[in-house]
Amino acid sequence: MYSYPVKTNGNTTKDLINSLFLNPENAVSMPLYKHWKENPDITIGIWKITENEDFFKEAAGLYSDKKLEKRRLEHLASRYLLHLLAPDLSQHHITVSDAGKPYHPEHPLHFSISHSFPYAAVAVSETVAGIDIECYREKIIRLRHKYLSKAEQQLVAENIEQSTLAWSAKEAAFKWYEKGGIDFIQHMPITQFDVSGRAAIIAIDFCKEAITPLTLHGGLEDEFSWAIAVLKMH
Questions:
Q1: Dihedral sign of CA atoms 161, 167, 171, 176 in order
Q2: How far apart are CA 89 and CA 108, in angstroms?
Q3: What's the pLDDT tens digit per position in 223-234?
Q4: Cβ–Cβ contacts within 10 Å for residue 213, how many?
Q5: Alpha-carbon distance 225 to 221, whole Å?
Q6: Rounded to an integer, what distance in angstroms lies between the CA atom of residue 99 and that of residue 96?
């Protein structure tokens, strides 16, 4: 993975962010946790939610009809981040597939959205991609048997961070597939799980229809893990 400034319509993401604020000097305190190019075709951004709902309404005219405030903030932050990374993609035309994946029926750009309060993540790509972000929680250890085989559980031991990363990887692969109907143990066996420092490479033999090898990149941050799935990683 490597990082360099994201460009959108000739502007860097910083320029774009500045243009969306009534007072550009406020941009230095905005909670864009990080953004980078995973490869030349994929841009990823992660947002830490510190705003109230009025911020998203005033900054980009965004609303949410979710019942719970936390879910509304997750929804608004992820859509705002999508707006930053793909400003020419109309939010009003986004729809949701039967499998629960948001998409734009008339735009060639692919995108994937994830949130785990207080974080939201978005991947914008020229090809189909899936991203997932998960905050660390101790209960992940007692839930591992629901998504990891016994062999996979041995790969991550009883490590909360790595167990969360394994879940992120399978969630990202599930979103990449787009069609639903997936058994996380049977259809997505992990064949490689390498963590070096805070970066990771995870290989999954996705075998819902035919075996499709996926190589996912991921990371361990202080409060959460993330993973990105595409068919080919550069």
A1: positive
A2: 10
A3: 999 999 987 544
A4: 13
A5: 6
A6: 8
Domain count within the chain? 2
Closest CA to 128 of 95, 101, 90: 101
Same domain membership, residue 120 and residue 142: no
Q: Which residue, of 94, 109, 127, is where some domain finishes? A: 127
Contact 75, 66 (CB under 8 A): yes
Q: How far apart are CA 125 and CA 6, in angstroms?
A: 12
Q: In this structure, is residue 1 part of a structural domain?
A: no
Paired tokens of 23: 């007072």
Tell me: do 55 and 167 sit in the same domain: no
Percentage of the chain modeled with pLDDT above 90: 66
> Residue 152 in contact with residue 190, Cβ under 8 Å?
yes
Range of the domain at 169: 133-230
- Reported in sequence order, the residue ranges of 21-66 that DSSP labels E, i.e. its strands, are 32-39, 42-48
Q: Looking at the predicted structure, is the pLDDT value of residue 180 above 70?
A: yes
Token pair 């030349």 is found at 40
The C-alpha atoms of residue 145 and residue 190 are separated, in whole angstroms, by 14
Indicate if 122 and 142 belong to the same structural domain. no
CA–CA separation, 157 vs 121, rounded Å? 27
Pairing of strands 110-116, 190-196: unpaired
CA distance 110 to 132: 15
What's the gap between Cα 191 and its chain centre? 22
Q: Are residues 141 and 214 in the same domain?
A: yes
